[in-house]
Amino acid sequence: MSTNQALIDFQNIRVMRGSKPVLDDFTLRISSNEHVAILGPNGCGKSTLIKTITRECYPINREESSMKILGNDHWNVFELRTMLGIESNDLISECTGQALGRDAVLSGFFSSANIFSNHIVEPAQRKLADAALERLQIAHLAKRPVREMSSGEVRRILIARALVHQPKALLFDEPSNSLDVFARHTVRQTMSQLARSGVGIILVTHDLGDIIPDIERVVLMSNGKIVADGSKQEMLKPERLKELFGIEVEIAHKNGHYHTW
């Protein structure tokens, strides 16, 4: 593991949803420049982990627990959101209204889903939004309503939104959900390009196909706990995935990509 500053450093945290612990005695450290996949079945606590990183969920205060993000245990949430870029399924439903592509990207500066009358967009912010659109080769979507875009185009708009404030790391939440074969390929190519540019990446998924060749480390999650953590080659083995998902699997591996059936 890299010795650089930790992006997240969670030690023995417990996060409740109602009366149920969803993350329980959960310990995870990820350095700011790492490319890490967190793999697990639906319902294992992956979404709660993302919400804990973004400070939408908070762990119980316990003496044996600690939680730091980029070295700090106290954050202004709006300041933290300028340090992390989030591409999540929750944003899909929020950004499918009247917003134009550029406005959806600009909304990343305001933690919203569109640009509203109370928002003042500075010229420098507009320039950064256009640069993010160009970087993802979707400048042609700047004036198109999000509701008229394909699922793949919306995903790329949301990645541009996550990048617009030049964050220290990107969090991807099930990035290929509801995408066709071409759109999945495009989004995964985009993730690889970002990884190679030096941006830290945390990928949360249940789909091995999302684990791009640039991912170096895989963390396996089950029932709110980490059950294994190591190199991609060590973690993505049939016997480990059988235990994780409860089903016999075969794995194909080609050019750094993994697939199961």
Can you put this structure into words, describing what you see?
By secondary structure, the chain is an alpha/beta fold. The protein has a domain of 143 residues: Rossmann fold. The chain is 30% helix and 26% strand. It is built from nine helices and eleven strands. The strands form three sheets. A six-stranded mixed beta sheet has the order 5-6-7-3-8-9, sandwiched between helices. Strands 2-1-4 form a three-stranded antiparallel beta sheet, with helices on one face. A two-stranded antiparallel ribbon has the order 10-11. It is globular, with a radius of gyration of 18 Å. The protein starts with 5 loop residues before the first strand and ends with a strand. The mean pLDDT is 92.
What name goes with the CATH superfamily of the domain at 1-83 and 202-261? P-loop containing nucleotide triphosphate hydrolases
> Which structural class best describes the helix and strand composition?
alpha/beta
How are the strands of the largest sheet arranged? 5-6-7-3-8-9
Cα gyration radius (Å) = 18 Å
Instruction: Determine the fraction of residues in helical runs and give it as a percent range.
Output: 25-40%
Q: Report low-confidence residues grouped into runs of 5 or more.
A: none
Q: What overall geometry do the principal axes of the alpha carbons give?
A: globular
**Distance between the first and last residues' Cα:** 30 Å
Q: What is the element string, with H for helices and E for strands?
A: EEEHEHEHHHHEHEEEHHEE
**Residue fraction in strands:** 25-35%
CATH architecture of the domain at 1-83 and 202-261: 3-Layer(aba) Sandwich
Q: Could you give the count of β-strands?
A: 11
